[in-house]
Structure to design on (339 residues):
């Protein structure tokens, strides 16, 4: 398999590369990442000994450069992670979300068609469905109703992928996953932010009343689901990926404090963000029945191991926060392929 992974220096992408390295080290894998603030080569530095792996610093919106990469490798499949992904940032300034998430997806779809890539997996999010009330679940047939610039840009990417399947008969599959947690997540997201602040006895900012509900899945379970869809999913189909684990944000925060033996007095309720979706909940029946996948890591175990990882990797966290890693690894971890 010749596989292109976009955004492989990010949180989920880097975990997916590690998963492929463990499962299919014989595959030829090229990782293309622009290395924006959340792209961290330190996440994948340990893959430098993988003979079949290469990193190329490139922008998914740069059609000319990507065309050369596609031409050189003749990929069998593309798995598209690269995206601007933080809702708060999209509310403040959506330009990069529109550019990367929509136009970047368009470029990759166009080049995949031009170079006859056999399969394109677009990694999306449950946020494209909007918000749920106190009951019910998102299914693959739930109408898209995005409520933030971020989720609107991801829904747009999904629609471009759908159009490529129906108009050009490209082999497209789409996955929509619930909230991920685990190692190497950028510290602006809920779980790593709460861990970091608690470790330093800083206030833990919780939006509104903290009663917003999310379904949580360990990133390793997500990676296994993605590989399953990549290899066995039916062309043109959407697959919801969920952890069967709904939790209120405030509950997550209190569990982290309990693991770290910190006081709940650190919790600080702050003004809610605009358009904050109340509840997400995934119905993952389709992937469970049709592709025989279901999550394996219990949330309590996964959360404890995640907290433990961040405690042991404070050097990584500090480098990510200060940006020190970027200058260092751009010098030390040079790309192997000249375009």
């Amino acid at each position: 398999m010749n596989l292109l992974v976009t955004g492989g220096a990010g949180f989920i992408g880097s975990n997916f590369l590690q998963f492929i390295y463990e499962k299919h080290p014989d595959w030829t894998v090229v990782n293309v990442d622009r290395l924006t603030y959340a792209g961290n080569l330190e996440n994948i530095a340990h893959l430098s000994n993988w003979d079949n792996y290469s990193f190329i610093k490139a922008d998914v919106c740069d059609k000319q450069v990507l065309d050369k990469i596609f031409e050189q490798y003749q990929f069998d499949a593309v798995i598209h992670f690269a995206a601007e992904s933080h809702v708060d940032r999209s509310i403040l300034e959506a330009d990069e979300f529109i550019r990367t998430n929509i136009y970047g997806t368009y470029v990759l779809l166009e080049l995949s068609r031009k170079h006859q890539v056999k399969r394109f997996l677009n990694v999306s999010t449950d946020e494209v469905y909007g918000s749920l009330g106190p009951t019910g679940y998102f299914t693959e047939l739930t109408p898209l109703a995005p409520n933030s610039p971020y989720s609107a840009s991801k829904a747009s990417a999904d629609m471009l992928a759908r159009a490529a399947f129906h108009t050009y008969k490209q082999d497209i599959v789409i996955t929509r996953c619930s909230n991920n947690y685990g190692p190497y997540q950028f510290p602006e997201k809920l779980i790593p932010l709460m861990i970091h602040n608690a470790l330093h006895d800083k206030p833990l900012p919780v939006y509104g009343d903290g009663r917003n509900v999310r379904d949580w899945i360990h990133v390793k379970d997500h990676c296994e689901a993605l590989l399953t869809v990549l290899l066995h999913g039916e062309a043109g189909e959407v697959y919801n990926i969920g952890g069967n684990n709904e939790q209120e944000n405030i509950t997550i925060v209190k569990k982290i404090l309990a693991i770290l033996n910190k006081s709940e007095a650190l919790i600080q309720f702050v003004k809610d963000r605009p358009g904050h979706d109340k509840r997400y909940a995934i119905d993952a029946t389709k992937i469970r029945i049709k592709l025989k996948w279901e999550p394996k890591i219990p949330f309590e175990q996964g959360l404890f191991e995640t907290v433990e990882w961040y405690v042991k990797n404070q050097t990584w966290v500090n480098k990510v926060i200060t940006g020190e890693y970027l200058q260092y690894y751009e010098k030390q971890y040079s790309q192997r392929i000249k375009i």
